[in-house]
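anyone seen this seq b4? input:
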Amino acid sequence: IIKRNGIKNLITIQNGMRVKNTEGACNYFYSDYYLAHNDETASKYLNNVFCGKKLSIGSFLSGVLFYKYKNLNLPITNDILFWHHPAESKLTQMKFPGTLEMVRKIIDNLAIFMKQNPSFSLHYITKNDLTGDHFFEECKEKLNSTNVKFSSIYGNDAYKCIYQSKLVINIWSTMGYESLGFAKRILYISYDNLIDSMLLEDFKHNNYASLHDKSYDAFENRVLTLLNQEDDDIDKFYEKLKDKYNPIKINPLEVIGSIVS
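predicted toks r here
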């Protein structure tokens, strides 16, 4: 019906990393172009989409904002970016018992690290304003230090924080995968393998992007390595992840421009 009304190109843009959870719904729409995050999405999860052409361009929003911030020449302002996790929520406790204890241990290790390494800066981000929230206030009290900044940020500003940080420490937010498009080093923490089922396969067990050892020494060693070490093997590892999951190589607006021009 839409095509009969004169629309030349229907363009569908993948939004988020969870397309595999809704792949059945993809059987019911048509696109002239599907702009996918990556080749795995385009080939594996969208096989049944009636589509003229599938293009792997990375996360659309990440790509647009990456080139915006790059053109603005925004500086690095944070060494570490940490995403708060609402581990005390009933849903989280139901799906992943033990998450609250895991996050408390992560915060303990992070607090020790920031006190013992005062030259580094930490930006601690919450999705919503959690002032007064019991668990958040507990985390905030532990991390109370001059080199720690707390912000309630959502939407485009969250991507700006990623762009201006060296290392992104994550638990299971998909913003970690979005960070790959910005060529950032990412560390997912999964003590007791608690969240391994939520991680993409390449993140589950490796020497860089995931950490399972709960000891402080392991935490400090990994964070210092990712912050300080200039290493071709590390760079190649994250570049490979970027190419596989969020291969931003051109501004997505230019892709759409080439389609409609």
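The beta strands are 11-13, 30-36, 50-56, 78-83, 122-126, 148-152, 165-170, 185-189, 210-211. The chain has a mean pLDDT of 85. kinda curious what u guys think
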